[in-house]
Amino acid sequence: MPYDPVESHLKIEKLVVRGEGGDQKRRYYRFRIDRWYGGIVTADCVGCGLFCKFCWVSDKVRSSPMKIGRFYRAEDVAERLRSLMMKRRLWRARVSGGEPTIGKDHLLSLLKILDGFVGEFILETNGILIGWDEDYAKKLASYKSLHVRVSLKGCNEKEFELLTGADQRGFKLQLQALKNLIDYGVSCHPSVMTSFSPKSSFINLLERLKQIDPILEEEVEVEELILYPHVVKRLKKYGLKYFVAHPPDRIPPEQI
Ligand code: SF4
Predict the structure, then answer these.
(1) H-type alpha helices, the chain
(2) What pTM value is reported for the model?
(3) Is residue 256 domain-resident?
(4) Closest residue (by CA) to atom 6 of ligand 1?
């Protein structure tokens, strides 16, 4: 039975978030520099409400959110990111590793602290909570350095359900997230996992994006599967077939 993607996010939130308001803490397990976007300072949080079969996050992190990492205040996360930025002279930052929109107060506090210091904060999200809670997009509109990348799981409802195991209505929430962000003037673009999609699905998706806003069709980013060993194992387990994929050391430069 497919699970409810919103309920699943709210459920995991109880495990990886503590407290409320400006003091809300979130569980993180790593701070690092990553190669994407030409070099980006990254805080890896724990916990996501989707269970994508192609996800690069390790099984250990995905299956034991209570045992991995520890709770951090927004100030502490900002400090770790700032210190890495200064050290490496990199001015882009993000939260990855899990779904960063879990723990709304925590994320908004983190953005507030970093706004004005960071050149660009890239919020990589599956969009479920932003599609479900319009106020989330409204609040995100306050941060000048923010850009949101909504990562669509497949090109339509059916593919979303196949790839995530979640109820296919989640795909509409992903598209709604883009609409909410556009409506509140938040800088954003869609990326889409196309490795499991026939070309016709992608073309239909472009039309749906255009109906939300023509800029989304123009700026869509293609995301393709990376064959990390644990991902290959997982795909085998689920018997999931793909059209296109890349070994980790041979990712096309335009996708880095
Ligand atoms: S939404 Fe992202 S972090 Fe969550 S399971 Fe899917 S790929 Fe992994």
Answers:
(1) 5-16, 59-63, 74-88, 104-114, 128-132, 134-140, 157-164, 169-183, 199-212, 214-219, 229-238
(2) 0.96
(3) no
(4) 52
Give the closest residue (by CA) to ligand 1 atom 7: 55
For the chain, the domain total comes to 1
Q: Output the domain CATH number for residue 106.
A: 3.20.20.70
Q: What is the pLDDT of residues 17-50, one digit of tens each?
A: 999 888 999 999 999 999 999 999 999 999 999 9
Q: Which of 3, 55, 122, 195 to mutate to test the pocket of ligand 1 (most atoms within 8 A of CB)?
A: 55
Domain carrying residue 82: 5-251
Q: How many residues does the chain have?
A: 256
Distance (Å, whole) CA 239 – CA 228: 16
Euclidean distance between CA atoms 71 and 216, whole angstroms:
36
Instruction: Tell how far the Cα of 16 is from the centroid of ligand 1, in angstroms.
Output: 15
Query: Would you say residue 63 lies in a domain?
Result: yes
Residue 209, CB half-sphere, CA atoms under 13 Å: how many? 25
Distance 9 CA to ligand 1 centre (A): 11
